[in-house]
């Protein structure tokens, strides 16, 4: 029972400490997460405003394009009606200058039926035919008019020059004797006498009530204060709610040029008092541009609203996740603390502190027991430190002996240097070059007794070795290097590359029929691994030999390069000891074509 009370009290203490610790986590959250996140959010808001404006205007453009499709449908319906009348033979017969009165009357009967049928089209407000004054019923002024009465029409010259194609007029006010004044569009086309084709016999107008078009435009709800209208490529107003603007030029300069050159897009209208965007798209059937002028302030307000929503959502999500993480970690700490303490105590007991058994039920509970255990461990550590000191003394003595052993390499360097000068004195450059190469080789290979060298030094060692072999086998092989930049600060095991290069030369190229060839040495980093490759175009090997090279130790080769050993087994084992079993050599060889050996090494950064 006493034990349970002690454990319960310890649990309460742990919970209290966890809650106190949480306030520092919250403070850290505010300082290192919340404030930086707010700063980044402000920066993101500023940078993304332009992007959001583009997204908003693009959304509006898609809505405008849908309205343009609806307008095309209306105008195309009128065009089809015009084509039906234009191609009707009764119209041609009526317009024929040589037609008799009877023929005209006969044609008019069916032509009247055709006109009445056309006007049943909901998109067609009126069909009007302007012909020579000698035709019957030209004074009717409902469907038939004299051509002379149309000559003052603003679009008359354009219709006469169109060669019979449809010319669309902008919205204008027309007074009908049976309807009164109405704003309409007209699809006009010139008519020719089919028997005398050079003679113009009339003009066909299909009128469309502007209300049919404005009803479509009024359904477009882009912004509260936006304005939607139709303009021609020259900037002339075709249709607008403000009728006083009809026929006037609404745009000029760069915005007009941009709208004229492109089928759709967004341009900024430069106006210091009322900055706004013009979103436009082409009405294919007429060539006009459907334009929506939107105040920049409304688009900016949408962008700001989207940014604010995104920012609040981000901050809220981060806060909720962090608090959830805090409480989860706190619960885990409270749950696992006793178990961790017990684990530490059991570990200490297994270490040989038997006296702890007498103090298992101290009044202080597990924490007091842990403190006592640490006291005993401190005494144990003092003893281990004394042992470590003795080991360091012995290690120092070993280093002194190693420094003494370096006298022999220095003596070797000095002796080679003396031989080099003697060779120079006897004018023997070949001997001098060989001695210099050999001295460089020993310096790089010995590396002051260190087991690790930089990648650059390892490549230089292979280069010096090949230079020595060039003197031994002149003009028998060529060497190329493919070295990635940035390998100077990496370390690798010493004498890894040189045995592979030696194997390529002596067992690949020198055993080929011509005893000549090329060696390619490459080095690069890939996914945190250093890759060294040596490729030769020598005799190659069969698959059985390739499989055995890295799995079976082979006898050492002779000094002349002959023998059965390829030295690759030892290199492979050294790499595995240095980096682990996931690294080492791989060999790809084709008999008669050559061999590629690849070394995969977990490199280390050179200590500064």
Characterize the structure shown:
- With 608 residues, the protein is of the alpha+beta class.
- Helix content is 52%, strand content 19%.
- The protein has helices spanning 2-86, 89-95, 101-118, 156-160, 210-218, 253-261, 296-350, 365-405, 407-425, 429-446, 455-472, 497-509, 543-549, 568-579; strands at 126-131, 144-146, 167-168, 172-176, 180-192, 200-209, 227-231, 237-239, 264-269, 276-283, 288-295, 452-454, 477-483, 490-493, 517-526, 529-536, 584-590, 594-601, 604-605.
- Strands 1, 2, 3, 4, 5 and 6 form a 6-stranded mixed β-sheet that branches.
- A hairpin with a 6-residue loop joins strand 9 and strand 10.
- Helix 1 packs antiparallel against helix 7 (296-350), helix 10 (429-446) packs antiparallel against helix 11 (455-472) and helix 11 (455-472) packs parallel to helix 12.
- The longest helix has 85 residues, at 2-86.
- It starts with a helix and ends with a strand.
> Count of DSSP E strands?
19
Number of helices: 14
Distance between the termini: 61 Å
Cα radius of gyration in angstroms: 48 Å
Structural class: alpha+beta
Largest sheet: 6 strands, mixed
**Share of β-strand residues:** 15-25%
Indicate the low-confidence ranges by residue numbers: 353-363, 402-408, 556-565
Question: In which range does the helix fraction lie?
Answer: 40-55%
């Amino acid at each position: 029972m006493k034990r349970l009370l002690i454990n319960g009290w310890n649990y309460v203490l742990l919970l209290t400490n966890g809650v106190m610790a949480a306030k520092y986590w919250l403070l850290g959250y505010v300082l290192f997460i919340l404030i930086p996140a707010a700063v980044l959010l402000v920066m993101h808001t500023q940078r993304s405003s332009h992007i959001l404006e583009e997204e908003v205007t693009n959304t509006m453009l898609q809505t405008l394009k849908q309205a343009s499709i609806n307008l095309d449908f209306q105008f195309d319906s009128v065009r089809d009606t015009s084509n039906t009348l234009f191609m009707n033979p009764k119209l041609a017969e009526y317009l024929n200058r040589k037609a008799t009165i009877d023929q005209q009357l006969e044609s008019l009967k069916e032509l009247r039926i055709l006109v009445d049928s056309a006007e049943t089209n909901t998109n067609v407000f009126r069909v009007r035919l302007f012909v020579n004054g000698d035709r019957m019923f030209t004074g009717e002024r409902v469907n038939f008019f004299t051509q002379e009465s149309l000559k003052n029409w603003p679009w008359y010259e354009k219709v006469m020059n169109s060669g019979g194609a449809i010319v669309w007029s902008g919205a204008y006010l027309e007074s009908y004797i049976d309807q009164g004044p109405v704003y309409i569009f007209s699809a006009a086309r010139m008519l020719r006498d089919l028997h005398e084709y050079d003679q113009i016999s009339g003009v066909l107008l299909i009128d469309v009530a502007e209300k049919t078009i404005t009803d479509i435009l009024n359904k477009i709800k882009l912004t509260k204060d936006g304005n939607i209208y139709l303009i021609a490529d020259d900037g002339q107003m075709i249709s607008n709610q403000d009728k006083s603007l009809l026929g006037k030029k609404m745009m000029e300069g760069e915005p007009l040029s941009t709208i004229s050159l492109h089928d759709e897009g967004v341009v900024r209208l430069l106006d210091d008092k009322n900055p706004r965007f013009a979103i436009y798209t082409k009405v294919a059937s007429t060539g006009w541009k459907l334009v929506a002028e939107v105040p920049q302030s409304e688009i900016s307000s949408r962008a700001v609203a989207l940014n604010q929503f995104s920012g609040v959502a981000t901050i809220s999500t981060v806060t909720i996740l962090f608090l959830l993480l805090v409480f989860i970690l706190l619960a885990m700490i409270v749950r696992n603390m006793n178990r961790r303490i017990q684990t530490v105590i059991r570990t200490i007991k297994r270490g040989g502190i038997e006296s702890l058994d007498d103090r298992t039920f101290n009044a202080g509970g597990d924490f007091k027991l842990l403190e006592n255990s640490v006291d005993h461990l401190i005494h144990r550590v003092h003893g281990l430190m004394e042992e470590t000191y003795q080991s360091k003394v012995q290690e120092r003595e070993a280093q002194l002996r190693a420094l003494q052993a370096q006298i022999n390499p220095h003596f070797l360097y000095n002796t080679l240097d003396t031989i080099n000068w003697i060779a120079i004195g006897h004018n023997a450059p070949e001997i001098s070059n060989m001695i210099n190469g050999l001295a460089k080789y020993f310096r790089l290979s010995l590396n002051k007794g260190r087991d690790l060298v930089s990648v650059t030094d390892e490549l230089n060692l292979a280069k010096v070795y090949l230079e020595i072999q060039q003197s031994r086998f002149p003009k028998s092989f060529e060497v190329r290097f493919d070295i990635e930049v940035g390998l100077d600060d990496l370390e690798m095991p010493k004498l890894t590359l040189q045995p592979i290069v030696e194997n390529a030369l002596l067992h690949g190229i020198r055993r080929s029929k011509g005893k000549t060839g090329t060696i390619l040495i490459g080095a690069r980093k890939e996914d945190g691994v250093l890759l060294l490759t040596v490729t030769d175009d020598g005799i190659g090997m069969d698959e059985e030999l390739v499989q055995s090279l890295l799995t079976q130790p082979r006898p050492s080769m002779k000094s002349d390069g002959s023998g059965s050993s390829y030295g690759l087994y030892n290199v492979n084992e050294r790499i595995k000891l240095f980096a682990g079993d996931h690294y080492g050599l791989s060999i790809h060889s084709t008999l008669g074509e050559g061999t590629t050996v690849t070394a995969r090494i977990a490199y280390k950064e050179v200590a500064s």
